[in-house]
Write a structure and sequence with these properties.
- The chain is globular.
- Strand 1, helix 1 (8-22) and strand 2 form a beta-alpha-beta unit.
- The protein has one helix at 8-22, and strands at residues 4-5, 36-37.
- The longest helix has 15 residues, at 8-22.
- With 111 residues, it is mostly loops.
- A two-stranded parallel sheet has the order 1-2.
- It has one domain: Pectate Lyase C-like.
């Protein structure tokens, strides 16, 4: 799966539309970040409920306090990512690289 590098600006638009999708608002769109290169993008406190992040490159990513409830993170590379205080309840982490991930305070219920 090809990696597409996302900028802060692109991510702001994606997160805004995803928030609208979560609220069933017109113009909303589910965040589909499958295979995306997100290493340099801050996702601190991002609301990524039910987002598609499979095969994404999140090495060293700042996901502190992010809401990843029910997110698809299967086969994502999270090596060294900061997931402290993140909500990972019911997230799909099958095959994800979790080496060196910071998980203090993270909720991994049914993940």
């Amino acid at each position: 799966m090809p990696m597409s590098k996302k900028t802060e600006t692109e991510m702001a638009v994606i997160l805004q539309k995803h928030g609208m999708w979560l609220c069933s608002e017109e113009g909303g769109k589910r965040a589909d970040l499958r295979g995306a290169d997100l290493r340099a993008v801050s996702l601190r406190y991002a609301r990524l409920v039910r987002a598609r992040l499979s095969h994404a490159d999140l090495r060293g990513a700042d996901l502190y306090g992010a809401n990843l409830y029910y997110a698809g993170l299967n086969y994502a590379d999270l090596h060294g990512a900061d997931l402290q205080w993140a909500d990972l309840r019911r997230a799909d982490l099958r095959g994800a690289d979790l080496h060196g991930v910071l998980l203090h305070g993270a909720d991994l219920t049914e993940a």
